[in-house]
Amino acid sequence: MILAGDIGGTHTRLAFVDVANGALRAVWVAVFPSHEYRGLEEIVSKFVAEYKLRPDAACFGVAGPVLNGRIETPNLPWIIESKHLADKLGLAGVSLINDLEANAWGIATLVAKDLILLNAVKSSSAGNQAVISAGTGLGEAGLYWDGARHHIFASEGGHADFAPRNELQMELLQYLIARFGHVSYERVVSGPGLVNIFYFLRDTKRGDEPAWLTEQMAHGDPAAAISRAASEGQCPLCEQALDLFV
């Protein structure tokens, strides 16, 4: 039995995974709000105690750079160390890897029903590939093809400088520089990035923020509130923000 985890700034997802005949099957899965816990060890202890299963191995994909089995999570006040997790689980070792690196390893397990086609062009499984994930931050990883197989590498490309491509994006960049100083792609292509775009459009008088939306944003996930209002056609300013985001 493998204990697997996806550790993000908003949610921590844990699963007990059974391995049989080379196939993986999730036996138990649970989602925890990351900010409500003091650290990953607390969440892992709760999960293991609830299902009363002892893992044979454990691996956690964590948002951020992992160095020597240790990570200071950029979007949480946590320090995660593989040795401490191994001691907690009674294992010889625990693997900590970048979350997008973990996603890249999982690409090979996807089947047609897991995919959405964006561009109908001929393609091949050979060649370089990229994985991009916009969540609390902007995660990126790559798979380079050596002629025989893919090699996976983690990346912190989300922290690269944002490069605007038109006048509106230039104006957005200047707005964000005034707020944050350095502006990375993560400032615009992420959940908080959508909120930044919304505030930019609001503050530059491109639309009005409804009072009901202000209330929803104050008492819930602001990015989710903006996205929901845009997709349901309830707020023209939200629609502008989502259009610029995508």
Helices and strands, with pairings:
Blueprint: E1 2-7, E2 11-20, E3 23-33, H1 40-51, E4 57-62, E5 70-72, E6 79-81, H2 82-89, E7 95-98, H3 99-106, E8 129-134, E9 138-145, E10 150-155, H4 167-180, H5 191-203, H6 211-218, H7 222-231, H8 236-245
Parallel strand pairs: 1-4, 4-7
Antiparallel strand pairs: 1-2, 2-3, 5-6, 8-9, 9-10
Helix pairs in contact: 1-2, 5-7, 5-8, 6-7, 7-8
Describe it:
The structure is a single chain. The strands form 3 sheets. Strands 3-2-1-4-7 form a 5-stranded mixed sheet. It is globular. The model has no long low-confidence stretch (mean pLDDT 94). 34% of the residues lie in helices and 26% in strands. β5 and β6 (79-81) form a beta hairpin. It has 246 residues and is an alpha+beta fold. It has 8 helices and 10 strands. The protein has 3 domains: 2-108, Nucleotidyltransferase, domain 5 (2-Layer Sandwich); 117-158, no CATH class; 167-245, Hexokinase, domain 1 (3-Layer(aba) Sandwich), CATH 3.40.367.
One letter per element, helices H and strands E, the order comes to EEEHEEEHEHEEEHHHHH
Uncertain segments: none
Oligomer: single chain
Silhouette: globular
- What is the top-level CATH class of the largest domain? Alpha Beta
Structural class: alpha+beta
Number of domains: 3
Entry keywords:
alpha+beta, 3-stranded antiparallel beta sheet, Nucleotidyltransferase, domain 5, 3 domains, 246 residues, Hexokinase, domain 1, 5-stranded mixed beta sheet
